[in-house]
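Ticket #4471: structure output looks truncated?

Reporter: J.K.
Steps to reproduce: submitted the chain below (266 residues) through the standard prediction queue, then opened the result file.
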Amino acid sequence: VRIPYPFGMGKAGCFLEGFEVSCTSDNVPVLNSTGTRLLEINLTSGEARVENKKISVACNLSQEKHHGEFLLIGRSFMVSRTKNIFTAVGCSTIALIAGDILTPIMEDSTEEYTHRRFYRVSACGVFCFDDSSSSKTDCSGRGCCQSEIPTNLRSFYPWFDNYDNAIGGQNFTNCSYAFVAESDWFQFDPNYVKPHVFEKEKLSGQRPPLVLDWVVDNTTCDAATKMRSSLCADTNSVCVNVTSGHRCICPTGYEGNPYLIGGCQG
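Returned output as attached by the reporter:
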């Protein structure tokens, strides 16, 4: 994995705060802010691909709610709304995400961002019929459902709520699964609603990839200029406002790293 600045490893100064990468004993790069495996960094698009920690599982639901694993993204990272999707697999279950979202505030004519408390940000429901041996592979609610996630999602956890425990039996799994992952990672198979099929094919394999958007600061370009805190180091670099702050790019005709002096080469 190529690790360009503002990401970095080693001593302080080799990376921007919040962008530290460590290396495990078996040579796996880990993005420290998420504690997950780092797969790829894209400076131009301001994206980082990581492994999601796990697929959340709840079995034998009755009327109680079940919470999945919490994933904290970090101050400079957001779950990409355009590159990821929330997916649930199972029968007779409502799957939801409780999330923490950054929202803009105004202070002294400087736009900054603040947290909102956890609340429901995405949900979908799944059900099964006796003829669920159907060959349909779309996630439209029959054994599988998907829903979009909001902009600026900073941290989240899936949770489950059984809405009908009358449907069941040996032909259907009594477990529900939910995860946020890169949009094209998952292809639904109708057999996933049968007992133990999903676990064997998905829980024992590679963890789902998750695409993160990142910014170098949670202020706008104008605010960073006024405070003289812009991190666009190269004289040819350009500051770009995004939904939760700003980042830097090399302009058309240049390529390289805008966070380094002399980084944008024509």
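Triage note (M.O.): checked the attachment and the full token line is present. The chain is about 5% helix and 40% strand.
Status: closed, working as intended.
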